[in-house]
# Entry
Amino acid sequence: MIDPATASADIDLGAFAANIRAVADLVAPADVMVVVKADAYGHGLIPCARAARAAGVTWLGVATLGEARKLRDAGDTGRLFCWLYGPEEELVVPVAHGIDLGVHHPDHLARIAAAAATAGRPARVHLKIDTGLSRNGCPPELWADLCAEAKAAEDAGAVEVVAVWSHLAAADEPTHPANAAQLAAFESAVAQARAAGLTVPVRHLANSAAALAQPAMRFDLVRLGIAAYGVDPADGTLAADAGVPLRPVMRVRAQLLATRRVEAGAGVSYGHTWIAPEATTVGLVPLGYADGIPRHASSVGECAIAGRRTPIRGRVCMDQFVIDLGPDATESAGAEVTLFGGPGSPTASGWARACGTIGYEVVTRIGSRVPRRYIDSAVV
# Structure
């Protein structure tokens, strides 16, 4: 673990709550599920889950049963949805703990029904239809059979079919033809489920991007992921177009460990992939790819110091990288550097553009060696 004074990821739970409320206002009367998978996209599972609940969120979503168990062990008793589990994972405890489970195959349904019998309570399930992502979800040709089996299991008291759901392939591109096709396929699947005798009290299709840009996809519940953390799902356009003022939740910062003067012609960092064209001052930032700083940021990423942008020079190393402070720099060791998420600094989306990736990856990959410091801008 790095000393928090040296480097940290500062998490603003006030901004997190404000983002949730802003999207909730937009999508009402649809309810909001805040997705806290992957350690809340790198922001901290338990603190963010608690902040979401305090902001009035009734549903949380996670990918894995391990994440769900951590939330239950931490005292969370609210509605909790989990959708990824392996063929050998034990399901009795999740059912006993009231964790809603995603189902996209009759084998899942049979395992869950058996677990419910052992747990002594019906399992809450969300039937997933593949509407065109071709990743998981029930293939359309098997959907009628899955619905019929779910109805039989519900009649037997083994399960309660809580929802029908699906996931979108191109929601961050609102005009992509896949969106209309998937919406139509989803509505058809819901109709089939109801024709099979299922009530389908909850329909959920929209992720952050669709929640912002596709009103017809909001249905009863939206799954709010990256937008809750202040990162636009479409590189800065969807939230602004929807009139939702997202605030960055994660600020990654560090102190300079050292500064030094380099002369024109000097090579910087491994391989001398950057050669100083003139004399300048460089600073050493104590974070590297072991901490989730993309190696693709080498010589293309930027930070901010003292209100100005400072480019990364040379290769990002395992534990450190070098920034160009400029020929007239006066900073010394201890000066504060913001990588992204602060006033006047690059955003996570800006880092993503520079590195050829997406904002999701930038925040999620910040590693456990970087300490999280929690603040609440609403009370400071």
